[in-house]
Design goal:
Chain B is mostly helical. Chain B is 37% helix and 6% strand. In chain B, helix 1 packs across helix 2, helix 1 packs across helix 3 and helix 2 crosses helix 3. Classes of the chains: A mainly alpha, B mainly alpha, C alpha+beta.
């Protein structure tokens, strides 16, 4: 990793390597949706997607000592996911019980593919509606942000710039970048939390 | 356990910085502890990550229920996986003062290479010491990453008559380790490991971590 | 740079050959015996179990573990955690006829690897293009064969069979070798149930883990790939070769003796060598050092003795890395360095147990 583009996951990976399993959970929470979406492009059965995603994370956990930070953690995880899914497909092809509809050929690896809401098998109408609501809330909240906050969080989350790079673009100290991104997140989270907090007790 | 509201904002800030790789070691350590202890921290982490995902792609917007059960299921499987890494026991008080090691210089401010091997150590007299593994360097203790504690030799309470009375603990307290002393000891460690590799209760390849090399500098 | 070795088996693992199969059957029978012994011993497990009962059981475990270590073909990733730092390596071990081949590649820190063919070990440093060649002493590798330590170990460690666990995807038996005194540490050992291969070893004191070495994943019973070792040896052909001098000797002939009252209980001298240790320092790059190696059957202590040199030998004291303690001390005109996975007090005793032999009385001419 270059000095200008350090892996933001480095701290978490380091912590997991020191024996903190729960730090690995933080990585799971971060990447689970993306990994599942990636797998869903290769495998149609929703339960199977979740199984393969679980398998991916277990493999990543086991192989973490071998991870040498020559690539970003997500790149490495991505490859594990693809390999795990491919292996599952190969195993399925051998299984006469598996039907053709479970298999899907496309391997579109475009990270920011935006076709709109893709209906996936197994999602209830309520879940679909809830998803739409979440997306709408986030988008509305961003639109309501002040220019500074919106620019900061957009540069970070969509353009993937580091704090250093953002401070250059926005011509302000890194401390200000950190503060703006936090305030942007909290402003969006304030609107989002009521939608997410639907159960009592420990959810995570 | 949950944190008082005044602390919540503080921890959320740490999470935000950690999410972007901008937390210092101390901040990250506090954030990891908060993740263990505090539901709001975990929920906020999920919330921030979800926000980022949705900003990049609407179809990553998902109600949390499925994500929550995914994590619960994975937790159970992870519990089955043995933690092969030595647990960092931070709860136990040190019977002897933990020795603070001088920080190994690292390339980035607040970077995560603190304590990581950076390259050969140049010795004063024109020798080059290359120490293979990280073992010899203890990472600077950033609050909660203190490793196992040094022991003062405690006299045996058992009936073994041959174990004589032991020197007072102070005489056996560990000395601060510098790069120079680490380089000094490396050849002895390497020789010791090499002599005892393949002993019955040793895992294989054990001496690779202490392998070291000292050469006249070119 | 040693890249990732191609350690993946080229064909699916086959059933062990006849000799391997016999070894497996022998081991299985040994395990059955061990299990039976453990079962009858389990009733007494609540209290301390006596050394005599332990000895039979322990002998079976020892043999099984040793067989598996020398005969198995396996490939895996090894993780060692100590003092908050984690070091990983990739390990391959093959048994080819009567030859034992081993390859270890470090996955962290300076690029380095180890290649072993039977008793010769080569440590390669690709960035520096240096190969260090050293023999290993077979006596150190299986003490119980030579010194009957299977008899001694139970005197100093209590064997407690623990509930089984899974390690690196394998069902594993778990044994606790609990130190009977404070001169040594507890060892918690996981072995593969099917083959007896060591999967994980933790060094503990008072229930706290000081150091842990374990496979994070391992494939046992792979097809042997000797080329993984030989090709790598060949690749290092142009390297500068160092062969540090190691010469067998005896403490007594070097003018030293051990005071038996002070030597920590259970430790016997395994051997003594004079070796050239590379030294950083103002004078020559190598120092001639005497190394005495001791063992209680399970763990080892090295005592290094050399003439005291003020410019090089400064300070002195205890350092700790995981379970490994190092004690340095000036004793008169000598500089002692004691190293081992034992409590510091034990090292201290070794240093104090060592004394110069008195000069022989002058003979009348």
């Amino acid at each position: 990793m270059t000095a200008l583009n350090p892996d933001p996951d480095a701290a978490l990976v380091e912590r997991v390597k020191r024996g903190d399993v729960r730090a690995f959970e933080m990585l799971v929470v971060k990447y689970q949706r993306r990994i599942e979406r990636l797998i869903a492009r290769m495998v149609r059965d929703v339960d199977l997607v979740a199984d393969i995603a679980q398998e991916t994370f277990i493999r990543a956990y086991r192989a973490l000592p071998q991870f040498r930070a020559e690539s970003a953690f997500y790149t490495w995880l991505y490859r594990i996911a693809v390999n795990t899914a491919k292996k599952a497909l190969v195993d399925m092809k051998r299984d006469p019980i598996v039907t053709q509809t479970s298999l899907q050929g496309s391997e579109d690896e475009d990270e920011t593919y935006r076709p709109g809401m893709e209906p996936t098998d197994g999602e209830t109408p309520e879940a679909l509606l809830a998803s739409k609501e979440i997306a709408a809330t986030v988008n509305a909240a961003i639109a309501a942000l002040s220019e500074d906050l919106r620019q900061a969080i957009t540069l970070r989350e969509i353009e993937g710039l580091s704090y250093e790079e953002i401070s250059e673009v926005m011509n302000c100290p890194i401390g200000t970048v950190r503060s703006r991104i936090f305030r942007a997140r909290e402003a969006i989270a304030e609107r989002l939390r009521p939608l997410l907090d639907t159960r009592e007790g420990n959810r995570w | 356990m949950s944190l008082p509201d005044s602390d919540r904002s503080q921890y959320r800030r740490l999470l935000s910085a950690l999410a972007d790789g901008d937390a210092t070691q101390g901040e990250a350590a506090r954030a990891f502890d908060a993740w263990r202890e505090d539901e709001d921290t975990r929920a906020s982490w999920h919330c921030y990550q979800l926000i980022g995902d949705v900003m990049r792609s609407d179809d990553l917007a998902k109600p949390p229920a499925r994500d929550e059960s995914f994590l619960q299921a994975l937790r159970e499987r992870l519990a089955d996986e043995p933690v092969v890494l030595a647990p960092v026991d931070t709860a136990e008080p040190a019977p002897v003062a933990v020795v603070e090691q001088p920080a190994v210089a690292n390339a980035r401010a607040g970077g995560w290479l603190g304590g990581r091997w950076q390259g050969p150590i140049a010795m004063a007299a024109g020798f080059l010491a290359v120490i293979g593994g990280l073992q010899v360097m203890r990472s600077p203790s950033g609050g909660t990453t203190a490793g196992p504690v040094a022991l003062a030799g405690a006299p045996a309470a058992s009936g073994s008559a041959v174990v004589a009375a032991v020197a007072p603990a102070a005489a056996l307290a560990p000395v601060p380790q510098t790069q120079a002393t680490a380089a000094q000891l490396a050849p002895y460690l390497a020789a010791h490991r090499q002599s005892t590799m393949n002993a019955t209760f040793q895992m294989p390849g054990g001496d690779i971590r202490n392998a070291s090399l000292v050469q006249p500098a070119p | 740079m040693i890249g990732q070795p191609s350690l993946a088996p080229r064909r699916p693992a086959r059933a062990p050959d006849r000799r391997g199969r016999r070894a497996v059957l022998r081991s299985a029978r040994a395990v059955a015996v061990a299990m039976a012994v453990a079962a009858t011993g389990a009733v007494q497990a609540q209290g301390a179990s006596a050394p005599a009962e332990n000895a039979v059981e322990l002998r079976n475990w020892l043999h099984r573990i040793h067989e598996a270590a020398t005969r198995s073909n396996y490939v895996g990733t090894l993780v060692n955690s100590a003092g908050g730092s984690v070091v990983s390596s990739r390990v391959a071990h093959y048994c080819e006829g009567r030859n034992e081949l081993e390859r270890v590649d470090a996955l962290d820190g300076e690029a380095r690897g180890m290649l072993r063919v039977n008793d010769e070990v080569r440590t390669l440093w690709p960035r520096l293009r240096i190969a260090v060649v050293e023999p290993i002493d077979p006596r150190a590798s299986f003490p119980s064969l030579v010194t009957g330590s299977e008899q001694r170990i139970p005197d100093f460690y209590e064997l407690q069979v623990q509930p089984a666990e899974r390690v690196a995807g394998h069902d594993a038996d778990r044994l606790l070798l609990k130190a009977r005194d404070a001169a040594r540490f507890d060892h918690l050992v996981w072995t593969d149930r099917a083959t007896g291969l060591l999967l994980r070893v933790d060094t503990q004191v008072d229930g706290r883990t000081l150091e842990s070495s374990a496979f994070s994943e391992v494939k046992i019973g792979v097809r042997p790939d000797p080329n993984a070792i030989y090709a790598e040896l060949h690749r290092a052909d142009g390297y500068h070769v160092l062969k540090p001098q190691v010469r067998s000797t005896r403490l007594e002939s070097e003018g030293w003796q051990l005071s038996p009252k002070l030597v920590p209980a259970g430790f016997q001298t395994l051997g003594c060598v004079r070796r050239a240790l590379p030294m950083p320092g103002p004078d020559a790059g190598e120092a001639s050092v005497l190394q005495a190696i001791f063992s209680d059957g399970l763990t080892h202590v090295s005592l290094f003795i050399e003439p005291y040199q003020p410019q090089r030998h400064k300070g002195g004291g205890l350092t700790v890395m995981g379970a490994t303690h190092t004690l340095t001390r000036r004793v008169n005109d000598w500089w002692m360095t004691a190293v081992g996975d034992v409590p510091p007090a034990t090292l201290d005793q070794f240093v104090r147990a060592l004394e110069r032999k008195p000069d022989p009385p002058q003979q009348a001419r």
